[in-house]
Amino acid sequence: MPELPEVETVAQGLRQRALGRRIAAVEVRHASVIGGSPEGFASTLVGRTLANVSRKGKAIAVELSAEGGIAPHFLLVRLGMTGQLTVTPREAPIEPHTHVIMTLDDGREELRFRDIRRFGKLRCLTSQELEKVFGALGPDAQRVTELEFLAAMRGRKGAIKSWLMNQNLVSGLGNIYADEALFEARIHPLSQPGRVSPHKARLLFRAIRKVLGRAVKLGGTTFSDYLNLEGRPGAFLKKLRVYQHTGEPCRRCGQAIRRIIIAGRSSHFCPRCQVRPRVTAKMRGPRKSSSL
Ligand SMILES: [Zn+2]
């Protein structure tokens, strides 16, 4: 599932390949991936130019300008679980699960949205609507300040792993990068944010920056579905230390990496480097592996 580094890679691709280009035609092949009616969606987009690309958390907003003083609109892109946005030559075969095709400029290239699981979404928004969507998200994990981060942790109960993945508190992290950042900072995923020492909290803040920064540089992580705008996979997979490395030796200490389920999601950690605190959050959801 795309997280901040994958979404940022797609945003960068849009900046390089699509900015300044005009949408000449829109074909909605599967209406469930767009917000509103296909006709309304298409009529808002056709004739507009992609003027700017911004991102908050896992959401991308493409600003659409128009001639004649019409107020700008935004195309909100959420990749969901398996969404892919690619700039493709028109003659390239249309792959299965391609749900929206936007013809660019003279028609030689197309912006295609493909999504096998269809949890992704494309929506046209006014600037007020976009403000609301972005306003509901916590500060972006790459831009949050240390002060904001420490303040957000204060007094919080529950598992720090779930806290990191809650998009209303800090946005952009999912299962992969939350596990990797906690390993980097040597914090057990069941620790309670409010009980983590200020020193460790600062280590976590820095670990998030470091892990996300490296992953963005390598174009994100591809397991099966995520691709960048050119249709190529990300290269961070080899850099993962704990995520989906259950049973393998920890790179730091050699102890076998363990996997537990927290709030229904897998968490991977080193039981020696990430010592379980005396007081932890309660485990919720099915326990597939109880060995802590
Ligand atoms: Zn270890």
Provide key terms for this protein.
disordered C terminus, 2 domains, 26% helix, Helicase, Ruva Protein, domain 3, 4-stranded antiparallel β-sheet, N-terminal domain of MutM-like DNA repair proteins, binds zinc ion, elongated, 292 residues, single chain
CATH topology of the largest domain: N-terminal domain of MutM-like DNA repair proteins
CATH superfamily of the largest domain: MutM-like, N-terminal
Distance between the termini: 26 Å
Q: How many domains make up the 3D coordinates? A: 2
pLDDT averaged over residues: 94
Which structural class is indicated by helix and strand composition? alpha+beta
Global geometry: elongated
Helix content: 25-40%
- The counted number of beta strands is 10
Task: Output the strand order for the largest sheet.
Answer: 1-6-7-5
Q: Major sheet: size, sense and barrel closure?
A: 4 strands, antiparallel
The second-level CATH architecture of the largest domain is Alpha-Beta Barrel
Enumerate the distinct ligands: zinc ion
Q: Which CATH class of the largest domain is shown? A: Alpha Beta
Strand portion: 15-25%
* Count of discrete alpha- or pi-helical segments spanning 4 or more residues: 7
Uncertain parts: 287-292
Compute the CA-based radius of gyration.
Answer: 21 Å
| Element order: H for helix, E for strand | HEHEEEEEEEHHHHHEE
